[in-house]
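User: Quick sanity check before I run a bigger batch. Here is a single chain. Can you write out its predicted 3D structure?
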Amino acid sequence: MLKYVPNILTIIRFLLIPFILYSVIAGNYLVALLLFTISGITDIADGFIARKFQLISNFGKLMDPLADKLTQISMLAILVLNNMIPAWILIIVALKEITMVCGASFLYGKDVVVYSRWYGKLATVLFYLAIVSSLLIEQFAISNWIADIDLYLYYLALLTTLFALVMYIKTIYSKGFINKEELHKDVTVEKKERKKN
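Assistant: Done. Predicted structure follows.
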């Protein structure tokens, strides 16, 4: 039974998403915060159990990060719709995730996995803290200088996540997962064609 626990916890995170979003829409920010916190705890728990008892599965490898990203982007989207944060924050995160998905799809064909680093995990934690701050600020109608603390956390999270993206691309390139000779050939051909025109 224990071997199914990590995957069950991951599924619970997916199931929590619509309830969290509904709570935000209904203005029940404390309920949303509680459910969002439970989601975060299950994320930590499933990873710990899977590593501790060597219960890492293909399902977990795929669905665990997907649950994280879907929760994060869904929360940012609903905060944007509620005019609680600027839309450009969501746009940057969405573009970053699309790039990561494209990279993962590319590497999948080469049977290669680039594991997450500390800066990627730090970005996740910062986004979590920023979202929690947004919910608390809205719940208690905070209007003094503290009301901007969530924005500063979003700025830090965005800088960290963009740094993680750059390092991800650098790792793919430096490890030889991208054929550098082909890239140079393409550039050379493009230059020659421009000269002819």
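The chain has one domain: 2-196.

User: Great, the batch can go ahead then.
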